[in-house]
Amino acid sequence: MMGREKIMKVLKRLVQQSPADQTEALLLTEDSSLTRFTPASIHQHVAERNGTLVLRVVLGKQIAVITTNVLEPVSLKAVLGKAISLARLLPPHQDFVSLPQPRPIPKIKTYFENIRRLSPARKVKIIQQAVSLARENGFGASGAFSHGVVEVAVANSLGVEAYQKYSDLFLHLIAEKGMGSGYASFISRDSDTLQVEPLVQSAIFKASRGAPMAIEPGEYEVILGPDAVHELLVFMGYLGFNALAVQEGRSFFCSQFGKRLVDEKVMIYDDGLDAQGLQVPFDFEGVPKQKVTFFEKGVVKNIAYDSLTAGREGKESTGHGLIAPNTEGPIPTNLFMEGGESRLEDMIRTVRRGIYVTRFHYTNVAEPMKAVITGMTRDGTFWIEDGEIKNSIKDLRFTESILKALSRLKAISRERKTCPPGSIYGRRFVTGTVVPTIQIEGFNFSGVSAL
Amino acid sequence: MRDLANHILDLAKVKKVEYADIRIVRRQWEEIAVKNGRVDALGQDEGLGFGIRVLFQGAWGFACSSQVNRKEMEKTLGLAWKIAKESSKIKERGILFPLAPPVISRYQTPFSLDPLRVSLDKKIQLLLDSDASLRRNKKVKISEAFMGAYGTEKTFASTEGSFIEQRIVECGAGIAATAVEGGEVQVRSYPNSFRGNFATRGYEWVEGLRIQEQAERIADEAAQLLTAKPCPSGTTTIILDGPQLALQVHESIGHAIELDRILGSEASYAGTSFLNLEMLDNLQYGSEQVNVVADATVSGGLGTFGFDDEGIKAQRVPIISGGRLVGLLTSRETAHLLGKESNGTMRADGWNRLPLIRMTNINLEPGDWTLEKMIADTGEGLFLSTNRSWSIDDRRINFQFGTEIGWEIKKGKLGGMVKNPTYTGITPQFWNSCDAVANRDSWQMWGTPNCGKGEPGQVAHVGHGTAPARFRNVRVGVMQ
């Protein structure tokens, strides 16, 4: 870790040296570890130290971005020269207005010193506890346990100066016996909050319902657990809540603002400052995070902006800029769905014939404008009959519009869970989605696993 | 660098490791994205670092750093060793890692024009011209052109005495037109969706794609799709074109044959496989028309290299012969379970990732049909082209794909266009329903630069050689 003083000195010097009209320097450091285990062994256990600089220079409206992890002063000077040369070659980006102006950054605690206690030996002990606990109950446990310390710092020539240090850890595992499997996950910035036993018990509970029986595809009443709901929100964030998608006419939000699109119980928003999630005070452009409500009582309200998409509409960024160069647009990464009044047990009790899905797998977009996605259920799917969970069932393929599903919402749990992202690709930056369990009147399953 | 690597490996031997290797990797990439007449993004990236893998007391440890110097390497070796030592406390049995003879070698992707050295002006102009051609059709509201160039220099050294230097050069390009009208959005791409087609070749590959020449056709098809009839729902015969079949091979064969998945290493993330070791040499995976090889040596394949990241030479091995499963993708640690030697598929996504079993080029061998004859021989059905969406379960057996476009086949002729085509199936049933594969005239390599696997996530560049093929009794129009 470089520390605030050193990082800001490097970034500010680079910005000051730049002859460009506007310059932005983003630095990310990472000191992380990830341990993967099966019932038989720890088969992968890795540690990484890295630091990456992303330099964005603007000449008029000509913009170039260079990324490097070679951070010696001589290299950085060369990188700046290269970025300027590149920008000169480019046609102007007519939609570009400006890099962000400085705004006050909220002071939030996102780093817990106890993360440093997670040595290889300590992590192995925690994994041993999880594997042993599962074994004592007749199950095999596989999973991954990761932790990291990340610094994010941004400086630009307009005066933005932002630095934040983060700690994070996540542990996810599946418990397996025969053809049954169950999933559980944990994520936090504070390693002292990790409790292994409830996590293992949760996975075991989902895997303990005997040999799965086959159910015919079709429309069923469903209860979706938080990990499944997390998947729905992530896809909506990517497809619909993003200003670029709206501006390009490819979002299901297009022409729907102010209209009720889903059930009035639905409240979905993004909030980097909400302490129930994994807080993030500013985005990768150094803009403070704003709460953005996408659905309020089922009505389409707002969308997320970065500086480019906000500039197009004469608005201010909502603090959803991703790492440059970004062609995906401002995608919300701290999503929340508001809880309701129900409980999982209450929901199950009201189902005559239906399905409880704990998790989806390999979901993908089928029709973006209708928010139709398809995927499989995984690690715990159950048949509910006459108000009781009867049996685990073979994994099902679903093909359904998220909007249609949320229009048929019957109940929302009061309790919510913070769900971790999937695997971390590229640079580590861990956030979470805070979601309840939901009950939906009708949900389309289009196929069934052959196993 | 060799002296430095040897110093670290000597230190590893002092620590009594069973095995250690070090990879020093420098990666350069350049990506240019043009959208609606402007350069939407131009990024250049350089990454340098090293990773040390240690086998100690029957367990692996891996640590890496971006600071390439002697002191940091010594520290990182210490951490890798410590990780291995602690990890060895959870093991039913130690890792068996068969020795391999030392290899001293060098490999470089053959190419004529280094894509990272071609002038940026020239590359941008090609993309802007192609993008402009897409927008001649007024229904195209989003026009996009993309180009990527990648160079990787890898130095590998091991305690067995191997020292291998490789330079892999890759590039590719593509265009996409998005037509929008009312609430309808339709996309067409060339030569493949999700940014184009990629190969281990020089810039001559990009020039050969002739993206601008195809722009008008692609734009027209996107516009026509807005008013095309929906894909019918039911069970029918389908013919898949090369790029869609490439992803079909990738998802329903390529991942299923990874031996680490079969053994459960990916159970908690990407999943396992419907295959088990008893199925090798016994399972009729597909019909007799289906012949698949894993070929890391094929010219230009995106999964082509000289040596894998365990120092094993690139190979061509049979996977499915006459429909029967005869091979799996293996590593040194896993191949002995089959009584075999590694077939060289261990690759890492850069210096900061541990090598995993990854696809190389998983190729469906050409058959003896011409595409024209195949269509003429099909009474009723659909011809489906270019992937739009994909999904498959964690055991790689239940899949559903969507393609950008389809055409009806009626009485042996291509008929009307259909939009939003989807099809679904069960892996072995589907491949056993294959009754025709087109010949080498329409066989080509397709690069998949976005194959995800592992934790932390790793993106591999892999390839698939395919020619159009026909499948009977397939369920289509899943969303209707």
Sum up the structure in keywords.
heterodimer, A: 451 residues, alpha+beta, 2 domains, six-stranded antiparallel beta sheet, globular, B: 480 residues, PmbA/TldD fold, eight-stranded mixed beta sheet, five-stranded mixed β-barrel, 10 helices
Write the layout of secondary structure elements.
The complex is a heterodimer of chains A (451) and B (480).
Chain A: H1 4-17, E1 22-37, E2 42-59, E3 62-68, H2 73-89, H3 120-136, E4 140-156, E5 161-177, E6 180-188, H4 196-207, E7 218-224, H5 226-239, H6 243-247, E8 268-270, E9 292-296, E10 299-300, H7 307-312, E11 335-337, H8 344-350, E12 353-357, E13 360-367, E14 372-377, E15 381-385, E16 388-392, E17 396-401, H9 402-407, E18 409-419, E19 433-448
Parallel strand pairs in A: 7-12
Antiparallel strand pairs in A: 1-2, 1-4, 2-3, 4-5, 5-6, 7-19, 8-9, 8-11, 9-10, 12-15, 13-14, 14-17, 15-16, 17-19, 18-19
Helix pairs in contact in A: 3-4
Chain B: H1 2-14, E1 19-35, E2 38-56, E3 59-65, H2 70-87, E4 104-108, H3 120-134, E5 140-158, E6 163-181, E7 184-190, E8 197-199, H4 203-209, H5 211-225, E9 229-230, E10 234-240, H6 242-254, H7 259-263, E11 292-295, E12 316-321, E13 324-325, H8 332-335, E14 346-347, E15 356-357, E16 362-364, H9 371-376, E17 380-392, E18 398-410, E19 413-419, E20 422-426, H10 427-432, E21 434-437, E22 444-453, E23 458-466, E24 469-476
Parallel strand pairs in B: 4-6, 9-19, 10-17
Antiparallel strand pairs in B: 1-2, 1-5, 2-3, 5-6, 6-7, 6-8, 10-24, 11-12, 11-16, 12-13, 14-15, 17-18, 18-19, 18-20, 20-24, 21-24, 22-23
Helix pairs in contact in B: 1-2, 3-5
Describe, in plain words, how this protein is organized in 3D:
The complex is a heterodimer of chains A (about 450) and B (about 475). Chain A has about 450 residues and is α+β, with helices and mostly antiparallel strands. Chain A has 2 domains: about 5-205, PmbA/TldD fold, CATH 3.30.2290; about 220-450, no CATH class. Chain A has helices at about 5-15, 75-90, 120-135, 195-205, 225-240, 245, 305-310, 345-350, 400-405, and strands at about 20-35, 40-60, 60-70, 140-155, 160-175, 180-190, 220-225, 270, 290-295, 300, 335, 355, 360-365, 370-375, 380-385, 390, 395-400, 410-420, 435-450. In chain A, strands 7, 12, 13, 14, 15, 16, 17, 18 and 19 form a 9-stranded mixed sheet that branches. In chain A, helix 3 runs parallel beside helix 4. The longest helix of chain A has 17 residues, at about 75-90. The model of chain A has no long low-confidence stretch (mean pLDDT about 95). By secondary structure, chain B is an alpha+beta fold. Chain B has 2 domains: about 1-225, PmbA/TldD superfamily (PmbA/TldD fold); about 230-475, no CATH class. In chain B, about 20% of the residues lie in helices and about 40% in strands. Chain B has 10 helices and 24 strands. In chain B, helix 1 packs parallel to helix 2 (about 70-85). Chain B is globular, with a radius of gyration of 23 Å. Chain B starts with a helix and ends with a strand. In chain B, about 60% of the residues are buried.
